[in-house]
Design goal:
Elements lengths: L1 E5 L7 H8 L7 E6 L6 E8 L3 H11 L3 E2 L2 E2 L1 E4 L13
Length: 89
């Protein structure tokens, strides 16, 4: 299950997210979205855990937990609508 993690501080690393989520189960992959030029965290990232129950436990246990003084927003990632289609004129 893919998990959205929001309200991340600019200095947040992938390893910090791995360390936060591992107590709840296996972490398949982690991605912190970064600014192209500065490399600073954009404020959100994603974590994938293979088990649904482990993922739900992580969401319940980490939503609102502070990292770098900021409360995390943790929930199930929503699929993004496809880009494209008709353009406005």
């Amino acid at each position: 299950m893919e998990i959205f993690v929001g309200n991340l501080a600019p200095q947040t690393t992938e390893q910090e997210l791995v360390d936060l989520f591992q107590p709840f189960g296996e972490v398949k992959w982690v991605e912190v979205k970064r600014e192209m030029f500065t490399g600073a965290c954009k404020g959100f990232g994603f974590v994938e855990m293979p088990g649904r129950q482990h993922s739900l436990n992580a969401i319940a246990g980490l939503n609102g937990k502070e990292l770098h003084g900021q409360p995390l927003r943790v929930n199930e990632a929503q699929s993004r609508p496809a880009r494209g289609g008709q353009r406005r004129r």
